[in-house]
Amino acid sequence: MTEKNPSRDEAATMPCPVCERPFEPFGRRRYCCDGCRRKAWARRHQSPVAPVVVPGPGPARRPVTVYECGHCGTRALGVQRCEECGAFMARIGVGGYCPECDAPVAVADLIDVVPLAPPARREGGRR
Which of 66, 70, 86, 97 is the most exposed place for a label (fewest CB within 10 A)? Predict the structure, then answer.
């Protein structure tokens, strides 16, 4: 029975632990070449890889989403199908019922959101 890495039989070949090519060890050499020796050192000294974390299912958004019918303009909270015309409604955004009129209102309707414009480029100057 032969050992995988013979310790005293220098005439025998052994596989390089990096590239797995057989080589004849000389003295205390463990790798077939300097390139494999550097790769092994780099592998031993690399920083640990951060584990990939997959987020779990978040809270349900449908009950707090306001939908609006494209045909009749009816709004509903948490219901995707229009009760009047039976068509599927488009999502407006997160919202709730208005405390005064009890109608579905989206947060985007209450907040005046202005999209950010790209910065103006200067003529003739550096970027």
Answer: 86
Tens digits of per-residue pLDDT, 38-64? 999 999 998 888 888 888 888 888 999
pTM value is 0.46
Annotated domain spans of the chain: 14-44, 62-110
Please write down the HEC assignment for all residues of the chain.
CCCCCCCCCCCCCEECCCCCCEECCCCCCCCCCHHHHHHHHHHHCCCCCCCCCCCCCCCCCHHHEEEECCCCCCEEECCCECCCCCCECEEEEEEEECCCCCCEEEHHHHCCCCCCCCCCCCCCCCC
Counting Cα atoms < 13 Å in the Cβ hemisphere of 30 gives: 7
